[in-house]
Amino acid sequence: MPQFDKKHGYPGKLFIVEGVDGSGKSTQVALLKKWLESEGYSVFFTEWNSSDLVKETTRDGKKKNILTPTTFSLLHATDFADRLNYQIIPPLKAGMIVLADRYAYTAFARDTVRGVSPQWVRNLYNFAVKPDISFYFDVPIQTACERILTNRAQIKFHEAGMDLELSKDTKESFKIFQGKIMEEYKKMVGEFSLTSIDATLEIHDQQEIVRGKVKENLKGYLKKRTIYARRPKVFWRKFSLS
Amino acid sequence: MPQFDKKHGYPGKLFIVEGVDGSGKSTQVALLKKWLESEGYSVFFTEWNSSDLVKETTRDGKKKNILTPTTFSLLHATDFADRLNYQIIPPLKAGMIVLADRYAYTAFARDTVRGVSPQWVRNLYNFAVKPDISFYFDVPIQTACERILTNRAQIKFHEAGMDLELSKDTKESFKIFQGKIMEEYKKMVGEFSLTSIDATLEIHDQQEIVRGKVKENLKGYLKKRTIYARRPKVFWRKFSLS
């Protein structure tokens, strides 16, 4: 299996975005995707917690609130392992650019806040592929919370960290929970050499910085113009005997 | 969370049995349970892979053969974490004797044979409670395989390790797979100070040895005569004001 502390040897590239809810990372990765595609790159996008394998189990467990921090953490890792294997590694092997909205760092932050050992959860994800760039969108906690709390009618139970019993008020709990998560992210910037982006800048200005870093990383990378699924077809057409 | 390399501090006792399929461990633990109960102990029995939480997911994944060694390992760990939390720790806290048919060592053996890193899977289970005695039923591979292959009409796909593509013949694959698992067990006897029992002895003779070890371990243990669920009732009857 790959190892999280070693550079991967796949021909593709893996760029990921991290940050608290409301840091603007999803907007930035969406803009990055559009730009890369317009430049002719073959891009694959993947999100946290999106594998079919454990979706139902996680939903059920959350609904009944029967999950302990350890089972919660293990379910997310299982989801991630499945997604890594079917959505991340194959396009990387095919030389594509993979963009991920949240990565193992999300688990390191959240699970640690929920009470599992920081070292244990880092070992747990040791099968993950090390990203080529990990962007961290750094924003004051107040700004992030305002963005979320004014734009959403409702904050979900686990999203607000209500299982941690930080406060009986959902909004208050959300703020404390996000604050604790941010503390974990701040520790990781140095630990994992995350590329920190000032997320208080204008959207356009942040995107310029992100593109600059990506461009630099793509030097020497062989652009794939065809998408993965189409390659065999092209191959056989080219070398067909008929 | 508890730590696998440290003695637990619960008032109860945890005795577990391990060994390859056909080693006779389930017979031995069943006899041990009957004996302990007849001696007036309050006993709780639990089996490997029996939590409701991930049962369906594991079954589905197995059926479709879409699980990689890592996801397979993580699903088993999730099952175990759930079971530990709801079936093992509560009776231990209540001072009961918990008997487990298979424990984390089963994962260490099987997952390592399936290809995950031995160190990674050991770290993965670091949240587990260290058993008071871990019995390992040591039997020649030939004997174990004969017992299973003559008593069963069919060996399941994963039970035979068919996912490892060791052989196209189920029985042959089963033998090779069990042999590899046994090698892992043999390494663990020293590593985890497992209590090795000669499983070629008569059932009765093995049981005598097992009971002897358990008796020794129970010295100083305060016997619980009432079962966990009934305790509050007894309490209120005794101290009722009416």
What this model shows, in words?
The structure is a homodimer of 242-residue chains. Chain A is an alpha/beta fold. Helices cover 52% and strands 11% of the residues of chain A. Chain A has nine helices and five strands. Chain A has helices at 25-38, 52-64, 69-93, 104-114, 118-124, 141-151, 170-191, 203-217, 231-239, and strands at 13-18, 43-47, 97-101, 133-138, 195-198. A five-stranded parallel sheet of chain A has the order 2-3-1-4-5, sandwiched between helices. In chain A, helix 1 (25-38) packs across helix 8. The model of chain A is unreliable at 228-242 (pLDDT under 50). Chain A binds chain B through residues 1, 53-54, 56-57, 60-61, 66, 68-71, 74-75, 77-78, 81-82, 85-86, 115-117, 120, 123-124, 126-127, and chain B through 1, 53-54, 56-57, 60-61, 66, 68-71, 74-75, 77-78, 81-82, 85-86, 115-117, 120, 123-124, 126-127.
Summed up:
2 copies of one chain form a homodimer. Chain A has 242 residues and is α/β, with parallel strands linked by helices. Chain A has a 5-stranded parallel beta sheet with strand order 2-3-1-4-5, sandwiched between helices.
Uncertain regions spanning at least 5 consecutive residues of chain A: 228-242
Rg of chain A, nearest Å: 19 Å
Residues in β-strands, percent of chain A: 5-15%
Enumerate how many helices of chain A there are, as a single number.
Answer: 9
Shape designation of chain A? globular
Oligomer: homodimer
Summed over residues and divided by their number, the pLDDT of chain A gives a mean of: 88
Helical proportion of chain A? 40-55%
Number of strands of chain A: 5
Please name the two chains that share the biggest interface, counting residues whose Cβ lies under 8 Å from a Cβ on the partner chain. Answer: A-B, 28 and 28 residues
Structural class of chain A: alpha/beta
Strand order of the largest sheet of chain A: 2-3-1-4-5
End-to-end span of chain A in angstroms? 41 Å
- Give the SSE string of chain A: EHEHHEHHEHHEHH
Major sheet of chain A, described briefly? 5 strands, parallel
